[in-house]
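User: Just a sanity check before I run the rest of the batch. Below are the structure tokens for the first item. I only need the designed sequence back.
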């Protein structure tokens, strides 16, 4: 009986300790969320004046930006301490992990662990994930690089977000593939412009959909205008790059191909056009010599005859005179 009582006390103490640890971690993450300020909440329509947004990767049709803050480093420190001592992951063994699952994943470059979402599973052995706080992707992870998700980390919204340019031409908004020259030019421009100010004009998806395993990233979440650290509009700078000259000229070319619409001139318009013409003396209608001895019949109808503009009469006389 004593041993049973001791085991019960030990289990109760362990549960109590776990509860205390969870409470402490929850408070820690809530404080971290407050330190992130406006970036501790999902990015919504509005102006973000601080030079915080950093370019990570992507193309003009959809590129990834993340908020570069001290709070982001604090979040990564919490994750690294949580998994300290675990050299290999066991997340892939958990039932249900697949495309769309939230995980903690090791980055193959620096070997650190970050919040991520699984985008592809190849034959159950290789995993492609998107790191939701930076926007980059890793396609070479194995089961040992995957760790189980911690739902408490959802207190902090993703610090990276896929974006597209506001008021971009169709040639830019649909440019999902780049050649080597275009990719180098676009990446260099975005890197040199970072950190950037951002104006969010529209949000396409719900703010925290990324944590939903059934939601897959199909397009940009935000429609944005960006200003680089030099204060200049990034889309305008993109239009000046030789590699993208044809993309920005296509809109003009399309306008040039539009067929003109035929418009029937009004009396007022005709008078305005006549005023622009140089003054030409009007020629009088010559006397019909061949009808000197003829009796002219007068046809009087019910309606008055339609008036003929003097200019047309004068031109007709000129033509007859030239024939004679």
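Assistant: Here's the designed sequence for the first item:
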């Amino acid at each position: 009986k004593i041993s049973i009582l001791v085991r019960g006390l030990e289990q109760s103490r362990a549960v109590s300790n776990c509860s205390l640890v969870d409470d402490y971690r929850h408070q820690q993450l809530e404080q971290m969320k407050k330190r992130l300020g406006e970036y501790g909440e999902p990015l919504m329509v509005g102006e973000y004046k601080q030079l915080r947004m950093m370019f990570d990767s992507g193309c003009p049709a959809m590129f990834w930006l993340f908020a570069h803050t001290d709070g982001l480093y604090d979040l990564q420190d919490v994750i690294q301490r949580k998994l300290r001592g675990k050299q290999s992951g066991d997340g892939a063994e958990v039932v249900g992990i697949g495309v769309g699952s939230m995980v903690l994943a090791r980055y193959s470059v620096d070997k650190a662990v970050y919040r991520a979402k699984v985008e592809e599973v190849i034959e159950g052995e290789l995993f492609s994930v998107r790191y939701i706080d930076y926007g980059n992707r890793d396609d070479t992870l194995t089961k040992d690089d995957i760790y189980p998700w911690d739902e408490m980390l959802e207190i902090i919204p993703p610090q990276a977000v896929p974006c597209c340019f506001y008021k971009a031409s169709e040639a830019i908004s649909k440019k999902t593939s780049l050649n080597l020259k275009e990719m180098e030019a676009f990446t260099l421009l975005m890197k040199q412009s970072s950190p950037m100010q951002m104006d969010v004009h529209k949000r396409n998806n719900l703010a925290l959909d990324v944590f939903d395993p059934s939601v897959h990233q199909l397009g940009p979440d935000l429609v944005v205008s960006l200003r680089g650290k030099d204060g200049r509009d990034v889309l305008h700078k993109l239009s000046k790059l030789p590699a993208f000259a044809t993309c920005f000229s296509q809109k003009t070319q399309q306008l040039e191909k539009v067929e003109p619409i035929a418009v029937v001139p009004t009396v007022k318009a005709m008078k305005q056009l006549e005023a622009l013409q140089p003054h030409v003396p009007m020629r009088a209608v010559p006397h019909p010599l061949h009808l000197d001895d003829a009796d002219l019949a007068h046809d009087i109808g019910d309606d008055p005859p339609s008036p003929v503009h003097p200019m047309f009469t004068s031109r007709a006389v000129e033509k007859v005179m030239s024939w004679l």
